[in-house]
Amino acid sequence: MAPKQKTRNPELIPGVRKVSRSKMYHKRGLWAIKAKNGGKFPVHAKQEAAAVVEEKKPKFYPADDIKKPLSNKRKPKPTKLRASVTPGTVLIILTGRFKGKRVVFLKQLTSGLLLITGPYKVNGVPLRRVNQAYVIGTSTKVDISGVDVSKFDDKYFGKQVEKKKKKGETEFFEADKQEKNTLPAEKKDDQKAVDAPLLKALESVPDLKAYLGARFSLKAGMKPHELVF
Amino acid sequence: MTFKRYVEIGRVGLINYGKDYGKLVVIVDVIDQNRALVDSPDMVRSQINFKRLSLTDIKIDIKRVPKKKVLVAAMEAADVKGKWESSSWGRKLIVQKKRASLNDFDRFKLMLAKIKKAGVVRQELAKLKKEIPA
């Protein structure tokens, strides 16, 4: 906060100030400024008025006045990450086909989703996006410094757009057979490239690989609100 | 059937309810039928109802309402901390605290250790069973 400005002329009662007009003139030193400037108060030289550009009148005016919607300059930010979720943290996934799996968190994408990997060899979870809300962050961290995740973004995980073909009746039957969903080799290589340094980091901690390979489940007597993750 | 742990000056108790739950304190004075003045090296001397206190076996030698320094010295001399942590009650509390603070990975490692131990025990048992003439 800026230091409180000193008022030269405080208001004693609303509408009544302490110092009179002539005294204020003296206080502000306007006499000294005028004296320095040879009797007159210094004034900026008048600026040339900018040339007014004639706007062309529109040819067409709409019949009714249409309301313009208010401008929205909002730029959404990626979701705020919980303090427990940092790159290299082991997360427990709570929903979806991988529920209960313990995975390694790599980075947060611009959409706010978390980029995770099993690693695939350890628990079958590939490079995947996951929402922070469906995840528990544990306090176990894995060394992720050897992994390069810069090439992954939301577009990498988007649905592949297929070229539209005009189908005739006979082509319907043939087309279904050809649409097989095999993972392109490029994605398999990406998975291997990300997992290789991770697996090395996992080996250095005893039991960590087995830990990631096992699923989490609540057993008898476990109270989630009392558990330390 | 008789009582073995008495409320007396110097009796060490465990607070079992309230803000200072789990603290070991020394009874420094008795206020009336229900309350005592208690003190501990890490808390301000205060009154507490006996209902909130669980008496332990440990007793130290102090005069009524000693100065804090005197109390701390007496506690060191009697080794209250050591006696407490080696008593079965004290050890149980330490284990409870450790279990509560286990992280998910620690619980996993604990499970593996339990399975390993059970395996070893079962092997020995099988050996012993074999020796019994069928």
Report what the structure shows:
The complex is a heterodimer of chains A (about 230) and B (about 130). Chain A is about 25% helix and about 15% strand. Chain A has helices at about 20-30, 30-35, 120-125, 170-180, 185-205, 210-215; strands at about 10-15, 15, 90-95, 100-110, 115, 130, 135-140. The longest helix of chain A is centred in the last third of the chain and has 19 residues, at about 185-205. Chain A starts with 10 loop residues before the first strand and ends in a 16-residue tail after the last helix. The mean pLDDT of chain A is about 85. Helix content of chain B is about 45%, strand content about 25%. Chain B has helices at about 70-80, 80-85, 90-100, 105-130, and strands at about 10-15, 25-30, 35-40, 45-50, 55-60. Chain B is elongated and about 70 Å long. At the A-B interface, strand 7 and helix 6 of A face helix 4 of B. Chain A: Keywords: Ribonucleoprotein, Ribosomal protein. Chain A: One of its GO terms (biological process) is cytoplasmic translation. Chain A: It comes from Salvia splendens.
Spatial order of strands in the largest sheet of chain B: 4-3-2-1-5
CATH topology of the largest domain in chain B: SH3 type barrels
Instruction: Give the helix proportion of chain B (percent range).
Output: 40-55%
- Report how far apart the termini of chain A are: 41 Å
The backbone outline of chain B, from C-alpha atoms, is elongated
Low-confidence stretches of chain A: none
How many β strands of chain A by DSSP?
7
Low-confidence stretches of chain B: none
One letter per element, helices H and strands E, the order of chain B comes to EEEEEHHHH
Order of helices and strands of chain A: EEHHEEEHEEHHH
Quaternary structure classification: heterodimer
Mean pLDDT of chain B: 94
Largest sheet of chain B: 5 strands, antiparallel
GO molecular function (chain A): RNA binding; structural constituent of ribosome
Pfam families (chain A): Ribosomal_L6e, Ribosomal_L6e_N
GO biological process, one term (chain A): ribosomal large subunit assembly
Organism (chain A): Salvia splendens (Scarlet sage)
